[in-house]
Amino acid sequence: xxxxxxxxQIRKFKNTLLFWTVCILSGLTAxxxxxxxxxxxxxxxxxxxxxFITEATPNAYKAMQAMQAGETIPxxxxxxIVGTFLMLFLAAIVAIPVGIFCGICLSEYRGNWFATIVxxxxxxxxxxxxxxIGIITYIWVVVPMKGYSAFAGSVAxxxxxxxxxxxxxxxxxxxxxxxxxxxxxxxxxxxxxxMLQVMVPSAFGSIFxxxxxxxxxxxxxxxxxxxxxxxGAAISxxxxxxxxxxxxxxxxxxxxxxxxxxxxxxSLFLLTxxxxxxxxxxRIAKKWKI
Amino acid sequence: MQDxxxxxxxxxxxxxxxxxxxxxxxxxxxxxSGAFEHFGFWNFIFSDEWVxxxxxxxxxxxxxxxxxxxxxxxxxxxxxxFSLPVALFTGEYFKGKKVATILSTVVDLLAGIPSIIxxxxxxxxxxxxxxxxxxxxxxxxxxxxxxxxAIMIVPYAASLSAEFIKMVPSDLKEGAYAMxxxxxxVIRRVVFPMAGSGIFSAYILAxxxxxxxxxxxxxxxxxxNQMPETLRTTxxxxxxxxxxxxxxxxxxxxxxxxAIGLLLFLITAIINMIGKILIRRAxxx
Lengths: 290, 285
Hints:
Chain A is mainly alpha-helical and about 290 residues long. Chain A has 13 helices and no strands. Chain A has one domain: MetI-like fold. Chain B has two domains: about 50 residues; about 220 residues, MetI-like (MetI-like fold, Orthogonal Bundle), CATH 1.10.3720.10. Chain B is about 75% helix and about 0% strand. Chain B has eleven helices and two strands; from the N terminus they run ααββααααααααα. Classes of the chains: A mainly alpha (about 290), B mainly alpha (about 280). At the A-B interface, helix 1, helix 4, helix 5, helix 6 and helix 7 of A face helix 1, helix 3, helix 4, helix 5 and helix 6 of B.
């Protein structure tokens, strides 16, 4: 009897031990997030101001002069902000319709051999390292156009966004009840009207969440832009010329000792943007749950 | 008529994906063939020389393949003790509770941080810690890169594992409780055997993430082109050598870098396919 009690004690102890180990280790996972947020906010806060987001990056010489005179480095990341939004905008207006259509196609023809292959390839494309997308866009766009350009950057971002949007659209369309479609068709709606005016609007919340997440995933990408958009010091609106982006600027500041003090402001800007998009997406997903 | 146009549009937009997929393989093979022809396919993979001096150029991928495999494996080992508890926390212990929602938000945000910011954090904060602890002489190197990689893949492994842990039918668990099992025993004897294949596939996909991660590793690994001797030394991965040298490369070097890119693409594609197939199988159980 006593031996048995002892065994029970051990089992109970193991149970408690596992519970607390799980709790403590899970809690530890939050530390990197807090550490990164803390580091970026504390160091970046004082740099972030009106002039930081409206002025272009100074050249290294000007920055060096300011540093030697003990002043704060003039200028900001406006060229990067303009570049990021332009390239992202162009990538998104193509990727969103194509992605939604492809997602509808995959969900409508599920089980079909073609749809199965496309579905697997979408997964494959989604898992492709971003640096490979950079190389591919270099081969496909930069080499034939004989020069780096913002357009090439847009193409790279488009290839990265596409599988994300397809996946979220496909998953959502699959969850929608079949009866919704049947009801629409029974009322005499033509197929395309039912799809675009009944099905897509019903799934809009989830699709929109997917789009926001795709944008937030892509906006911080550096690797695919390094060999495509290249970067540039002035604010540029010309898609045929090299253009900068916020993550590219961070990479530039990281490599140039004269500009290093601009790193944290730019990082704070990027991080805030990405995390807000993420939280917004979560909000919308919760509100418009199917 | 309009329906036909609409259906054609659907198919056309779906064709883009195979076109991109086949195009990637074709372009990479096409541009990498120069390096493979010059050095020989197996020679290129198993050579550890990287000499960029004009006239005596010699390129081999072995140091970078080793670097990639080492960092990924280390990152995986370091990620398990954190991602598994997070999965249990959100999927079993506090399933559906507010704390679980908070933790999964934290983990989601961790997944959202751009890799260049992980790199900055590793370089300016973590590197000094590693130097203090005497883990590596300059603070950067394989170990540092793998540590930050581990943090980056925790979200992927954890959230996917949690999905599978949540799917374990509760009547099975209740049966075990009714037999007098403790929660720890239920997790070990019911949850893990049921969710095991799904959890396994989650880690395969996490490996796929870690293999191709570029910016963080480039900023932290130290970028030296020799075979890494210990975990404390610096090195380079397949992604980081491309990030470092692609910009100013041409001719044979460019072709060699693209060849490394092709190898990286194939490795990640195989790993991801295995992961996806396992996941689809686990979901149908």
